[in-house]
Every structure is written in structure tokens, then in C-alpha cells.
Structure prediction request, 198 residues.
Amino acid sequence: MTIEPKKQIKDRIVVCITGASGSIYALALIRWLVGNGYTVDTVASDTGRKVFEYETGTEFSVKAITPQKALLKIHDNDNLFSPLSSGSYKFGSVAIVPCSMGTLGRLATSSGSMLIERVADVALKERRRLVVVPRETPFNQLHINNMLRLSMAGAVILPAMPGFYHRPKTVNDIVHFMVSKILDAMDIPNDLYKRWQG
Ligand SMILES: Cc1cc2nc3c(=O)[nH]c(=O)nc-3n(C[C@H](O)[C@H](O)[C@H](O)COP(=O)(O)O)c2cc1C
Prediction:
């Protein structure tokens, strides 16, 4: 029997993409992770895939996302037979980025039937890090209550809400600020933007 080294477990990250605006954050996050030697499992909802392609102009395929093909695997959201469905499959953290209000509601009630909701539920039950990046404005009370429920269940609620104290000059600077916050929440060392030094 082979035992997977701990490093590989921590370095395997799951990135789920849903149909909210802001899929550019997911693209930049995946590219940063594989570019830095992490293995990424990714899943997109149907609308997530469409919004990703519409907003980023990038096809949702391994080939279009990264030249480091061996480090990225795309799973089908309707495939509950994927290894991601089980707590016995070892991964480090899960990021839902961007997270639509529909997915947020299903996560908060543990009621989803697709792979994205299942892998998020697995992360919570196994006490692994779940980072949820909701994107909507304004929020209604249901959205706010769902965020509270998820936070109480152990998720990190990290809204797509960039700061400007690092004085961004480009859209990329703003995107990297958010990606850095997501990596920080997953305890992944990074230097993607100029941190506040006081
Ligand atoms: C271009 C576009 C942008 C959208 N932006 C958002 C958004 O920012 N937040 C949100 O909650 N829903 C947004 N939606 C609506 C969701 O895609 C929709 O509620 C969908 O059913 C979510 O499904 P999913 O959670 O399975 O991805 C957007 C839809 C489109 C087509």
C-alpha cells in the first residue's frame, strides 16, 4: 500500500466556479496555483462555465487555462462519482470563486445535489478549509443569513471586495489583491500585492 505524502495533500487545491460575475478571480487563482507547483482540481457549474468564457474570453479547458496540463484536472459538476465527492480523497482547501447566491443558498442548507455543493460539504465535515467568495450587490437578507450560516459552519466568507490601499494601477492589480486574500485564507504563502506596512 502506498501512503500519499502529506505535502501532496496540502498542495492539492479545489477551485469551484459558479455563475456569479468575477470568474477572472478563478482564472488568476488557478494560474497562480499551477504556476507555483500546486495541483488543482476544478469544477464549474453550467452557468459558471458560460460566465467564465464570456467574462474572461478563455475557453474552459485545461489547454486554454494553463500549459502545465499535468497539474490541472477539470471535473464535471454532475459527476458525483468523482473522487472529490468523498472525504477519503485527500485535498487541502476548497475555494468557491466566484460564488453565486444560488450556490451560496444550497451550501448554507447543505441541500445541493451537484459536485460543487458536495465537495464544499465534504470540506466542512472533514474540517478542511472552505473559502467562499460571494459576488452580488446589494445583498438581500437571505444572502446575508446564508453567509452567516456558512460562517458558523466553519467556512471563511471572503467577499469579492477588493481594497485600494495598495494603489492598483491595472485591473490585474485589483484581481491579484483578491487572489492574494484567497491564498492567505488557505494559508498559502504568496506575495501577489504590496501589503500594508503602516
Ligand atoms: C453574466 C451573468 C452574471 C451574473 N452575475 C451574478 C452575480 O454576480 N451574482 C449572482 O449571485 N448571480 C449572478 N448571475 C446569476 C447566476 O448565474 C444564476 O443565479 C445561476 O442560476 C447560478 O447558478 P450556479 O449557482 O449553479 O452557478 C449572473 C448571471 C449571468 C449570466
The CA atoms of residues 63 and 93 lie 24 Å apart. The chain has one domain: 9-185. Residues 18-21, 45, 47-48, 51, 100-103, 135-136 surround flavin mononucleotide (CB under 6 Å). The longest helix spans residues 171-185.
